Structure formats: structure tokens, C-alpha cells
Structure prediction request, 103 residues.
Amino acid sequence: MEEMLEVMKKQLKMQKLISGLLAVMLVILLIAGGFFVNRMSQMTAAMSEAADKLQQVDVDGINDAIGTTQEMLESAGELSDAVDSVTLKVKEFNDWMSGLFGN
Prediction:
């Protein structure tokens, strides 16, 4: 009978130890859960702010700027072609003048 009491006391101590460890684990999980919820709230707020800023981006203005830049590049290409044409004519005139005066 005394042996059974000793065995039961050991089992009771073991159950108390396990219950204590489970309680500590539960507290740790609750703290981690609170931390996780806090972080998720911060991330949600940051994502909402980023979405608001993206909605404020003036896409039409950017497209207009790109279109204007393309037009300027085309104009610059036409100017370059015109300068090349004038340069060629000046060279032809120079060659003609050189041939005329025998240089």
C-alpha cells in the first residue's frame, strides 16, 4: 500500500511538472500570438498606405511626359537629318569652289 502511495506521489509530481510546463508554453504562445497580431496590424497599415500612394500616382501625366519625350526625340532626329543635309551641301559647294579655282 505504501509503495502505491509513493508511486502515486511520483505520478502526481510528474503531472504537476507537466501541467506547469504546459502553462508556461501557453503563456509563451499567447505572447507570440499577440506579437504576431501586432506585426500584422503594422503590415496592414503599411500596405494600405502604399496602396494609397500608388493611387495618387499620376499615370496620365507620366504617359504625357513619355509622349512628349518621344516627340522631342523625333524632332531631334529630323534636326540631325537636316544638319547632315546642310553639311553635305556645304561640302559639295566647297568641292565645287575648289574645282573652280583649281585647288
The longest helix spans residues 2-56. The two ends are 136 Å apart (CA to CA). Helices lie at 2-56, 59-101.
